[in-house]
Amino acid sequence: MKKLSWLIMTMIMMSTFTAPANAQAALLVLLFGEKVASENFYFSLKVGGNLANVTGIDDTNMKLGLNFGLLATIKLSDKFSLVPEFAPLSQKGAKDIPYLPSGNSEVDDVIAPPDASSMDLNYIDIPIIAQYNVTDQLSIGTGPQFGILTSSNNTYEKNLPDDDQLKYSQDSQVSWNTFDAGWAFEAVFSLGNARKGKGINIHGRYVLGLTDIIKDNSGDAVRNSVFQFFISLPFMALPEEEGS
Question: Which helix (H) or strand (E) holds 208?
Fold first, then answer.
């Protein structure tokens, strides 16, 4: 009963901070994660933040976003594991981007240059991490990551006289490539005995973009550059529950 209460509280927390579709994904893991878990294979729920930027555009700054998803740990040996992930929510982009003219002179004359701007890129990410257990508490990993762009917007803000503010948003998805690829490097620290069904894992990850995210780009390549910090909650039966 105590463990069930903990799972329900976790589900509520996930649904509070993520979209309904992501809460449904969390519910699936909470319902079925421990049913199929074993010492060599188990699911985890992950939630955390992205510090994202892009390379190839001068003077941009990091933008904070969310990342949320599911991961499966497949133990290959005492030291090595394969950890594929599915993250339906991964918010990337950059702040302080240059203004992209809208073609509407009435808007452009007022907004340009903007006082604040951001590029919001939302991806589905699929990393595949090869993980090495340095100790029981520390693991390191690396592997490819594939991304699918689901939506994008450029937002510009202009401070007007009398403390008014004008905010203008452009749907910029036609400008970006749908597919993205990168390479991930991470370190994982376990709090408690996470692999035995208790505790949490703390992840620090950097994903280096390998592909140009701008469609038909004739200039310098623009690539995603993302630091990720998140926790993962393993769902694995406790030893005394196995076989019961």
Answer: strand 200-209
pTM of structure: 0.80
Q: Tell me the pairing of strands 63-75 and 223-235.
A: unpaired
In contact, 127 and 184? CB cutoff 8 Å: yes
Calculate the alpha carbon distances from 121 to 34, 92, 160, 197, 220 in Å: 34, 5, 27, 35, 19
Which residue matches tokens 């400008």? 175
153-197 pLDDT, tens digit each: 999 998 887 767 788 888 888 889 999 999 999 999 998 764 454
Task: Output phi, psi for 185, to 5 deg.
Answer: -130, 130
Q: Which two tokens stand for residue 164?
A: 């008014």
Looking at the structure, give the CATH architecture of the domain made up of residues 36-241. Beta Barrel (2.40)
The rounded distance, in Å, linking the Cα atoms of 80 and 132 is 5
Residues 153, 159, 163, 165, Cα dihedral to 10°: -20
**51/54 Cα distance (integer angstroms):** 11
Omega cis (within 30) before 113: yes
| Per-residue model confidence as pLDDT tens digits over 101-154 | 777 777 778 888 888 999 999 999 999 999 999 998 899 999 999 999 999 999
The domain spans of the chain are 36-241
